[in-house]
Amino acid sequence: MKVKIERPTYSDSGVLAYFLMKEEKIPEEIVKITGKISEEEFDKKLLKAYDATTLGRMKFRRVLLIGLGEKKEFEPDFIRRAAGVAVRYCKSIKCPELSIHMPSISGMNAKLVAQFITEGAILSNYKFMELKTKKEEYFDVEKVSILTEERAAEEGVAIGTILAESQNYVRYLTEQPANIMTPRKIEEIARRLAREKDSLSITVFDEKMLKKKGMNALLAVARGSSEPPRLVILEYNKEKKSLPLYGLVGKGITFDSGGISIKPSANMHEMKYDKSGALVVLGVIRAVAELKLPIRLIAALPLAENMPDGNAQKPGDVVKAYNGKTIEVLNTDAEGRLILADALSFVSEKNPEAIIDVATLTGAILVALGRHGAGLFTTDDKLAKILEEAGNRTYERVWRFPIWKEYEEMMKSDVADIKNISNTGEAGSITGAIFLKEFVGKTKWAHLDIAGVDLINTSHPYLEKGASGIGVRLITEALIFLSKR
Ligand code: BES
Ligand code: ZN
Ligand code: ZN
Fold first, then answer.
1. Which of 307, 333, 447, 449, when mutated, tests ligand 1's pocket best, judged by the most ligand atoms within 8 Å of its CB?
2. What is the dihedral of CA 396, 202, 481, 343, to 10 degrees?
3. Which end of the chain, N or C, is more open, meaning fewer C-beta atoms within 10 Å of its C-beta?
4. Are residues 402 and 469 in the same domain?
5. What pLDDT sits at residue 34?
6. Of the candidates 381, 358, 338, which has an alpha carbon nearest to the alpha carbon of residue 452?
């Protein structure tokens, strides 16, 4: 899909969409064609649509009016949702061209409105179809024109396109099953991304190197699988030493069977999504490189498959992580924190201004928040605020949990420095974060637990079922903010 800005006088075939708040009148030029539209026919309730044929009196085949609801209840995300409604409508009537009359929204500038329309359109146009041999069910809306005189809208389209395409890139990669998207395959994809962008460089630690470096927590998780682990390190603007450096870490478990602490078989297939964090980081890097943000980034993607073969790690094993701390592995299903331990201590060694990690870490976060928000854990109030605001803007919302000192007791081991689960299982997401905190040293750090939001399993206004790519726009937005400081 290509999104463009055109003048309102421009006319084309296809569908013309208007977004209208309850308080707004239906534009004269539309009433002239359709005749009077009563309140009963179109009540302008949020995302309610009214479609009218133009009977050949306009170049557009059809006009689609979409409600934005009452002014006082308006939220900026409604713009993305309305764009999603328009695109889905075009798909349903197999119309490849859509024009959207840009609404003027108080409190939002033209650039932002155009950005959100673009995001909603590109995100709702995407569906994972690659593994189906019959393609005909899929209809692509090829062109979206945003009709406005405002030249500032161009920039919004450019930013929105980068963000939404980066998110779709992540959705595509994350949806791939574990027999295809192995640690080595993700390595290959990261290498391709690094080749495509001059500002990126890549280093990959294979098993031999991981052993040499003492990344034994990552190695321990991978032991039970025939797929070898990797640590992929991507650096953006590596040579530009005067720019501030930020660290990113993403959990990349390509399949989480639980290992010897094996999971129940119901829904185990969903554990192919346990690589979401690593792929979100890949998407953020893609977006940051395309936006050419004036920062430096170092990202570490620990990649492994968690399986239970004869060589697998066992409950009770003790491993020494990259930072020298010993970990008692009481449950092999709490594997994400093990691979993150090595990656976080590796990145913190580079002294970034802050590290953000993103991981499908705990089922407990899904219990707490459902699928409507990610858990945020940080000791830094400024970082919390930046991520909360970025979450509200992108509608990839986060909710902050405490990581009080008292929780630290729960993770103390009798035989090692720390254990990977608490005895009680209480506060499961928080104790997970407490574990991670042991591996970041003094670096400012925020942890995002995306178990839940990584997967869409009900109807959503602009995301199809499947891998969501949620986290890409959130973290990129936070980095855009940080790049302006
Ligand atoms: N990958 C899972 C977390 C998860 C659960 C993600 C459900 C998405 C949906 C993680 O590795 C895990 O198994 N965590 C355990 C931790 C426990 C053993 C302390 C969990 O949440 O049960
Ligand atoms: Zn697990
Ligand atoms: Zn896991």
1. 333
2. 60
3. C
4. yes
5. 84
6. 358
